[in-house]
């Protein structure tokens, strides 16, 4: 522990005789420039997300699984990873079985160690929920948990995210406050604003660096 | 986009300097001190004289204290604060008369306005005199524009020019806006933007001799973009930049030259064309 | 393209390296193009000047507030992280930090490490340290990967391989990975993706940096675009984050403006593709994520800068790289010329605290003090003021003592004497006017070669008569000379 004490002691002696600065955080500066009328929020989110190569569809909250099937068919994909114990997972599975989809529905229902190779290389697409979105920056809020693990939105080349239209906030500060994040953060909380990308070679934008090459957002309009 | 936005070039814009503190300008005084600056004193004295003439033309009496020398900047930017302070103290004594001080070189005006307070931070008594000097110091173009509120008639032949402003002066006093506005009142003068206009010319005082390779690359790029405008000449109100740019042009055996803004302005309003 | 010798491996001075870089026209073109584009992107990302300026002010206040209670916040961070199940380690030196990382890997008998982008791990030279101990430590950020593959160092903190163009990358991949050459950037990226994905899967330990460490919640926040940061912190069974002690902020809400300043200043993006907030290792019922998460807090000279109220502002830095992108020196000489981990203006003001002025004696003076860096800094570090201060510390007599490591590295009794004489000249009216008299009278005798100045300029020739003389005559009403007075060139 000597490194710890040495560092802290050095820092403390540097501050001798001073008091901490007051907290004068001005929340207006991070909210006022980033406010939208409710009808403009989706528009703003779409514009920003589409600008970074995201496909956005507004769909009915009952019929969205059809859109998922359509998207997969267009791309000729052979499987889709889902979280079977979530509400949307169940809704999807129900549709899948009742409509006799040929695309394999895979379940993330066991620890990664048991199927790492398959998860890393053989999954074509995944579908997850979100915990809302941010209009100001065009970002999805993701809160992976034991039912819907972290790697689901990262490993498959295509990631489909479900977003409830009513859960789009104006800005990051608003999301943070509304959900009282500072009272308890999850293992991992993510903001996702498009498919994975890089501009590391000659600043040329290339998608699909390490994460998904494609991100599709289905905005569920509440019935 | 705000007028402060410095449109450096079509392909490389840089943000504006931070907003200048709003300054209350006094009425036109009857008398001012001209602080010539060491570079103008020795290398561009005619520009200093033209500054005096421009001021006199506005009905202002000009004092030129013979005891003045250098603002102290070379030592200050080289890390020799004690030596800079010694020289600064001498200038403070000379400029204590309580009347406005006009400086025909941006970075030197900035030295009075921004850096003397750092030099004398631990001398409360001196600091009071520094504050007085700060309030009374004006860069030449600022003074002509904001205090004299000059109304000029351009009697010169049509000409096209490029403008260079010292980086520190631009940041500390927005001299680029003042110079642009002054030039825009001259009906026969067309000002042309140059590529990477807001980028440093590479002078930086002792930087130019401590890092001659880098400084040289910078000034060569600067002279190239100035010449690429096709302008007749470059004007600037900063002695250091002028020394750097003209010295480099001469070394490159180019005919293109820069001129001190004071001389350019005097020529436009007096019709007195010098060889 | 011949085998390139990385510039940083040469034992040479800043000036020598700069000369090399200035002669490389490809390099200069690569940098000019890239920096112009980054400057434009940043300008476009802040269309409203008022918004930008008030956000910068807020960013500055948040960092100043955090630094004003840094030791307390570090303890709070440690407490909350520990409660969340994250193990916190402290290291005064890079050697200590490397030992900590190594022991974590050893405890798992690990042999393969993947690394997300981390400038602190560059400070530590972690790759080499681990390689010497038989552990492969692979960079996974595309730019870092390219640079590592070519046995180079990053030339920019945000864009590590910005000095290379696509043909150079293609050739490199061909030589090292045995793939066909291609001019298609997308294809080059896919080659990197395939190669590194296997590494992510096999790695025993993932290493990452941290952009903000939030004391209030015990959270590590990382920003990135590629997904390699998420991979490194999620796929391997162990995640080790390394960061500098200055990265801590007080509250979660503090990151809202800082994040916006960071991504807009760095790349002109409203936000990065991923903002990854990590607060704990995998919980018992969770199906993925690392079983262990460690945070290594590194000092490495930061507490030295912290000790001085003025120099402390250096630690406001959020590593956006905007000062680098706007620097007229950097754009011409590139990152390798600086010879250390952090290039450009931020490198000039932070490196002396880490390695001492003896190792980087030219850093403080390699600037024209044009101030572009200070204008764009999102947390308003007065970079020119810091450089000025370092110049003072650099030329001090070592025996006078200095707040900066190896202060007085550039002390020269001769130079000091020259400035003393300069002072005498400029404080004595008599001497100064004698000097003017001599310089104007004997102007023709000005030597044609006046040291480094005449490398780029012709020698300046004093005017025939000084302004002192012209003004005196003019103002006393009997100007002797109405004719032109040639001055300068």
UniProtKB/TrEMBL annotation, chain A:
What Pfam families has UniProt attached to this entry?
Answer: LUD_dom
Domain of life, source organism: Bacteria
Task: Please list where the region (Disordered) is annotated.
Answer: 1-26
Q: Residue limits of the LUD domain?
A: 43-220
Its protein name is: L-lactate dehydrogenase
Automatic annotation (TrEMBL), chain B:
GO MF annotation, one: oxidoreductase activity
InterPro entries cross-referenced by the UniProt entry:
Cys_rich_dom
Return the annotated region ranges for Disordered.
1-27
| CC annotations in GO | cytosol
Q: Which residues form the Cysteine-rich domain?
A: 33-113, 161-245
**PANTHER family for this protein:** LACTATE UTILIZATION PROTEIN A, UNCHARACTERIZED PROTEIN YKGE
**The name this protein goes by in its record:** L-lactate dehydrogenase, Fe-S oxidoreductase subunit YkgE
* Organism encoding this protein: Marinobacter nitratireducens
UniProtKB/TrEMBL annotation, chain C:
Boundaries of every 4Fe-4S ferredoxin-type domain copy: 307-336
Record's Pfam families?
Fer4_8, LUD_dom, LutB_C
Keywords linked to the UniProt accession: 4Fe-4S, Electron transport, Iron, Iron-sulfur, Metal-binding, Repeat, Transport
| Single GO term (MF) | 4 iron, 4 sulfur cluster binding
Q: Which organism is it from?
A: Marinobacter nitratireducens
Keyword Iron included in the entry's annotation:
yes
Tell me, which GO biological process terms does this entry list?
lactate metabolic process
Q: What is this protein called?
A: L-lactate dehydrogenase, Iron-sulfur cluster-binding subunit YkgF
Q: Which residues form a coiled coil?
A: none
């Amino acid at each position: 522990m000597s490194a710890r004490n040495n560092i802290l002691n050095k820092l403390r002696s540097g501050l001798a005789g001073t008091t901490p600065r007051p907290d004068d955080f001005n929340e207006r500066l991070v909210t006022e420039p980033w406010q939208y009328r409710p009808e403009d929020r989706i528009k703003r989110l779409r514009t920003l997300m589409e600008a970074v190569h995201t496909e956005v569809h507004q769909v009915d909250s009952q019929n969205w699984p059809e859109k998922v099937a359509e998207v997969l068919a267009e791309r000729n994909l052979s499987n889709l990873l889902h979280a079977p114990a979530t509400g949307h997972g169940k809704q999807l599975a129900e549709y899948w079985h009742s409509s006799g989809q040929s695309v394999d529905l895979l379940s993330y229902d066991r620890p990664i160690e048991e199927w790492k190779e398959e998860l890393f290389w053989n999954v074509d697409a995944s579908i997850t929920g979100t915990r809302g979105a941010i209009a100001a920056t065009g970002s999805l809020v993701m809160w992976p948990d034991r039912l819907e693990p972290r790697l689901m939105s990262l490993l498959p080349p295509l990631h489909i995210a479900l977003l409830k239209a009513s859960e789009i906030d104006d800005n990051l500060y608003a999301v943070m406050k509304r959900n009282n994040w500072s009272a308890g953060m999850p293992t991992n909380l993510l903001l996702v604003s498009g498919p994975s990308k890089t501009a590391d070679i000659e600043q040329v934008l290339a998608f699909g660096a390490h994460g998904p090459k494609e991100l599709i957002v289905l905005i569920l309009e509440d019935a | 986009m705000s007028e402060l936005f410095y449109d450096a070039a079509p392909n490389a814009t840089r943000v504006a300097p931070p907003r200048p503190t709003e300054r209350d300008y006094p009425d036109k005084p009857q008398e001012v001190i001209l602080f010539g600056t060491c570079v103008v004193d020795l290398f561009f004295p005619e520009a200093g004289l033209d500054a005096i003439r421009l001021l006199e033309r506005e009905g202002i009496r000009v004092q030129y204290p013979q005891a003045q020398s250098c603002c102290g900047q070379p030592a200050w930017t080289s890390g020799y604060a004690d030596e800079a302070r010694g020289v600064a103290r001498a200038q403070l004594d000379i400029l204590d008369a309580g009347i406005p001080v006009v400086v025909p070189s941006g970075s030197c005006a900035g030295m009075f306005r921004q850096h003397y307070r750092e030099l004398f931070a631990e001398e409360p008594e001196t600091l009071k005199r520094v504050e007085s000097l700060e309030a009374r110091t004006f860069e030449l173009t600022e003074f002509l524009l904001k205090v004299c509120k000059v109304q000029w008639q351009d009697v010169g032949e049509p000409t096209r020019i490029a403008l260079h402003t010292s980086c520190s002066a631009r940041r500390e006093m927005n001299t680029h806006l003042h110079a642009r506005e002054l030039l825009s009142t001259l009906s026969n003068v067309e000002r042309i933007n140059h590529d990477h206009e807001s980028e440093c010319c590479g002078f930086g005082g002792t930087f130019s001799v401590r890092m001659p390779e880098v400084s040289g690359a910078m000034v060569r790029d600067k002279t190239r973009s100035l010449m690429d405008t096709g302008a007749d000449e470059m004007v600037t109100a900063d002695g250091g930049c002028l020394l750097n740019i003209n010295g480099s042009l001469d070394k490159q055996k180019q005919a293109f030259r820069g001129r001190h803004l004071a001389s350019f302005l005097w020529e436009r309003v007096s019709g007195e064309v010098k060889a | 393209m011949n085998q390139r010798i990385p510039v940083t491996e040469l034992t040479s001075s800043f000036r020598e390296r700069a000369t090399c870089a200035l002669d490389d026209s490809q390099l200069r073109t690569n940098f000019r193009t890239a920096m112009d584009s980054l400057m434009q992107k940043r300008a476009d990302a802040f269309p409203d000047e008022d918004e930008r300026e008030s956000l910068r002010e807020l960013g500055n206040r948040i960092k100043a507030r955090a630094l004003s209670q840094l030791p307390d916040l570090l303890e709070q961070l440690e407490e909350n992280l520990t409660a969340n199940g994250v193990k916190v380690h402290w290291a005064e030196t890079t050697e200590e930090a490397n030992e900590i990382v190594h022991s974590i890997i050893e405890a798992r008998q690990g042999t393969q490490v993947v690394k997300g982008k981390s400038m602190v791990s560059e400070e530590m030279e972690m790759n080499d340290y681990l390689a010497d101990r038989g552990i492969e430590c692979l960079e996974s950020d595309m730019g870092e990967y390219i640079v590592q593959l070519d046995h180079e160092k990053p030339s920019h903190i945000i864009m590590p391989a910005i000095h290379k163009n696509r043909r150079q990358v293609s050739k490199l991949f061909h030589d090292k990975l045995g793939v066909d050459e291609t001019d298609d950037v997308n294809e080059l990226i896919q080659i990197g993706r395939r190669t590194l994905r296997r590494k992510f899967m096999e790695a025993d330990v993932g290493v990452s940096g941290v952009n903000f460490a939030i004391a209030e919640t015990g959270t590590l926040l990382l920003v990135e675009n590629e997904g390699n940061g998420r991979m490194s912190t999620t796929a391997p069974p162990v995640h080790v984050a390394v960061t500098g002690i200055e990265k801590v902020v007080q509250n979660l809400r503090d990151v809202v403006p800082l994040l916006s300043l960071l991504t807009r200043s760095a790349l002109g993006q409203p936000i990065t593709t991923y903002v990854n907030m990590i607060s704990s290792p995998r919980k018992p019922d969770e199906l993925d994520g690392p079983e262990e998460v460690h945070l290594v807090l590194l000092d490495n000279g930061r507490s030295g800068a912290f000790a001085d109220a003025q120099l402390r502002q250096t630690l406001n830095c959020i590593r956006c790289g905007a000062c680098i992108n706007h620097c007229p020196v950097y754009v011409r000489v590139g990152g390798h010329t600086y010879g250390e981990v952090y290039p450009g203006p931020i490198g000039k003001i932070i490196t002396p605290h880490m390695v001492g002025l003896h190792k980087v004696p030219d850093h403080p003076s390699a600037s024209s003090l044009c101030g572009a860096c200070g204008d764009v800094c999102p947390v308003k570090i007065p970079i020119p003021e810091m450089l000025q201060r370092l110049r003072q510390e650099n030329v001090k007599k070592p025996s006078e003592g200095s707040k900066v490591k190896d202060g007085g590295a550039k002390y020269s009794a001769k130079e000091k004497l020259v400035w003393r004489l300069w002072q005498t000249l400029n404080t004595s009216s008599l001497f100064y006017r004698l000097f003017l008299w001599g310089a104007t009278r004997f102007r023709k005798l000005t030597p044609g070669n006046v040291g480094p100045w005449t490398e780029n300029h012709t020698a300046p020739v004093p005017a025939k008569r000084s302004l002192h003389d012209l003004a005196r005559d003019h103002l006393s009403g009997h100007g002797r000379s109405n004719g032109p007075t040639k001055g300068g060139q």
